[in-house]
Design the sequence.
């Protein structure tokens, strides 16, 4: 690196390292620091060649413009100031800090005592941590230029997957691309998504993340990625050539195939853990601004995440960082939306959750972010943390009540019909009250967190021993069932029933009002051996086990068939709840004798049979769905069809199902059935 450089005060906007025609501008927010430095490193990242004092500006932003300086320069920040934890101050100039706005990182992170601000006995640490921390890297991608698919919520079918786990074992993808961003955009994986009928890929965290120290001590890794190191940089373990532009390439290829990309994002906490955690970035620059602490006790963090710290979204610059990050991933990286982990935190004020929180208002008025897909995980472990149904439009929400009710119904529990009917038709009790519709509900049976679909019907107990926590971690209330045998079996009767029950779940999910979400592997019988918390299993437990003949798996064909039915009926695109006054669509509920359901039927706790029709008077079509969760067959009479043609069996969870007499037939135990009338072409609108 040339030492013949020119230094100028620099600009305060934008934050981070900006490549200009005559050099690089650095800007960082650290209002309580006494001095900030930009530290430049050689190309190896091992040697610090310059430590340059930055200039303090109005508002607490430090800046420096360096000429000449090229793309690819490696750097970090050091901050001088008080180290007084009781005051919430953690300045230590011996700690090299990652730029919160870094767009790229270089080098590996290694856990060591060097990252901590003080020694075990409470004395200030004077050990330099630069050898163990990635360096920020000056880079500047061009804005995304591709055409985005722009699927409406009524058309959307989400497929949640892990970047590595989705393709790490895919036999048709070249080995160097397996488990990478480019693996997800390989034609073989895209063909699989299109065969299923998926419109939208939801990726587990792709922001740079690290494994927690307690995991590495046990020889494990944070596989899921909910431990963010930087909010702007793609996780580089998923790159082939170390060039972050590969993420853009992936998005472009998926968009060209008509597939959207949504990111699971973690703006609720960071990898710096509790107040006794390491100094990696934010804590060493502006701890009181970036993290929430107990009133009058800034040394003690509020831990609404269960991960040691909680991001202080009330601070204007913390809020700005989150919004700037979101816009970066939309405008530069090209993504189509976000699923917000523990989203209740982002709307919590000192007085509790608020629909008018500054974060939610900022999103709503932002011309970029208000136009993308926004999904909340509407709960956390903080006070008033469960807020399903409370987010404002245009937010969508993960609906765990849908998940649990459907699981409990097919598990064979009694007293489920009334709740099941609500969930099947968009959960009006949760969303209608604040002027939202059925498409605000993200319906799912399984996700990355919990049993896989196969394990849901194969295990009644969790088996998380491999996580190293004596099977204490993970949920215990899974509403699962094993069909008679715990775990793997080659008993054909058991395996046949497990397949039938998986089809029951899938049929229910894909023909419910709301937005369906499939977890990866549901279509191919993926099992995690009963592990319902595989967050630290970066191995074959989590990686999908593809086979050369995978495309012929019966569940793949089944999902495709059911989604084809969904697309043929406009009622699933209908954005408002069905009421008696609806001029086009109607829903009717029947007993097994084809009589209208009465109040007493809904409250008969022993009933495990539900039959209902969905009619479209404009297209003169109808759909009849029958769900029998009981362990005995039920004699059933189909309802009269009035001016429509006869009912025709469209699909069933029972293999080779046939119905010769639609006036009277036997609905097999633990089975689901769909009949259609006057079905023609795919619905093209409402």
Sequence:
């Amino acid at each position: 690196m040339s030492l013949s450089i020119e230094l100028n005060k620099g600009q305060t906007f934008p934050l981070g390292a900006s490549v200009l025609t005559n050099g690089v501008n650095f800007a960082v927010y650290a209002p309580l620091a006494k001095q900030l430095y930009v530290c430049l490193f050689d190309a190896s990242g091992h040697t610090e060649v310059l430590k340059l004092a930055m200039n303090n500006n109005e508002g607490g932003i430090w800046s420096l413009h360096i000429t000449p300086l090229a793309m690819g320069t490696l750097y970090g920040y050091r901050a001088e100031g008080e180290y007084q934890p009781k005051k919430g101050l953690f300045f230590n100039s011996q700690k090299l800090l990652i730029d919160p706005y870094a767009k790229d990182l270089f080098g590996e992170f290694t856990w060591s005592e060097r990252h901590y601000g003080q020694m075990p006995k409470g004395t200030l640490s004077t050990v330099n941590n630069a050898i163990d921390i990635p360096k920020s890297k000056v880079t500047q991608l061009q804005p995304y230029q591709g055409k985005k698919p722009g699927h409406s919520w009524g058309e959307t079918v989400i497929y949640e997957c892990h970047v590595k786990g989705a393709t790490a074992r895919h036999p048709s993808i070249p080995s160097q691309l397996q488990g990478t961003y480019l693996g997800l955009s390989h034609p073989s994986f895209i063909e699989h998504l299109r065969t299923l009928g998926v419109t939208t890929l939801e990726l587990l965290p792709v922001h740079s993340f690290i494994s927690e120290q307690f995991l590495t001590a046990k020889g494990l890794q944070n596989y899921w990625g909910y431990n963010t190191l930087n909010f702007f940089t793609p996780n580089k373990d998923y790159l082939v050539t170390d060039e972050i532009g590969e993420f853009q390439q992936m998005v472009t290829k998926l968009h060209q195939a008509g597939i959207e990309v949504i990111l699971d994002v973690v703006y609720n906490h960071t990898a710096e853990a509790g107040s006794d955690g390491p100094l990696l970035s934010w804590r060493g620059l502006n701890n009181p601004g970036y993290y929430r602490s107990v009133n009058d006790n800034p040394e003690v963090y509020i831990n609404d995440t269960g991960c040691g710290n909680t991001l202080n979204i009330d601070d204007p610059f913390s809020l700005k960082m989150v919004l700037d990050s979101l816009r970066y991933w939309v405008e530069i990286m090209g993504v189509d939306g976000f699923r917000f982990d523990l989203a209740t935190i982002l709307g919590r004020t000192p007085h509790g959750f608020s629909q008018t929180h500054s974060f939610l208002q900022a999103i709503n008025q932002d011309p970029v972010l208000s136009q993308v897909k926004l999904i909340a995980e509407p709960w956390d472990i903080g006070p008033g943390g469960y807020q399903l149904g409370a987010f404002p439009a245009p937010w969508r929400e993960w609906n765990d009540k849908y998940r649990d009710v459907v699981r409990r119904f097919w598990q064979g529990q009694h007293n489920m019909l009334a709740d099941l009917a609500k969930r099947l038709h968009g959960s009006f009790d949760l969303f209608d009250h604040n002027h939202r519709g059925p498409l605000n509900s993200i319906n799912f049976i399984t996700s990355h967190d919990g049993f896989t679909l196969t394990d849901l019907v194969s295990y009644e107990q969790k088996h998380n021993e491999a996580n190293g926590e004596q099977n204490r971690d993970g949920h215990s209330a899974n509403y699962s069932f094993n069909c008679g045998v715990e775990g793997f079996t080659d008993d054909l009767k058991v395996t046949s029933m497990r397949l039938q029950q998986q089809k029951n779940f899938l049929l229910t999910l894909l023909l419910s009002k709301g937005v369906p979400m499939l977890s990866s592997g549901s279509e191919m019988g993926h099992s995690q051996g009963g592990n319902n918390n595989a967050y630290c299993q970066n191995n074959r437990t989590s990686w999908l086990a593809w086979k050369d003949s995978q495309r012929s798996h019966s569940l793949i064909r089944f999902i495709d068939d059911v989604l084809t039915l969904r697309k043929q009926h406009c009622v699933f695109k209908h954005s408002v709840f069905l009421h008696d006054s609806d001029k086009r669509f109607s829903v009717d509920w029947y007993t097994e004798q084809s009589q209208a359901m009465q109040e007493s039927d809904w409250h008969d706790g022993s009933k495990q049979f539900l039959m209902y029709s969905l009619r479209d008077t404009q297209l003169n079509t109808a759909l009849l769905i029958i769900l029998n969760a009981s362990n005995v067959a039920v004699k059933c009479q189909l309802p009269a069809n009035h001016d429509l043609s006869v009912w025709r069996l469209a699909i069933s969870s029972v293999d080779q199902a046939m119905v010769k007499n639609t006036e009277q037939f036997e609905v097999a135990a633990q089975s689901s059935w769909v009949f259609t009338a006057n079905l023609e072409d795919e619905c093209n609108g409402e």
User: Anything to note?
Assistant: The mean pLDDT is 95. The longest helix spans residues 492-510. The CA atoms of residues 2 and 68 lie 9 Å apart. Residues 158-570 form a domain with the TIM Barrel fold (CATH 3.20.20.80).
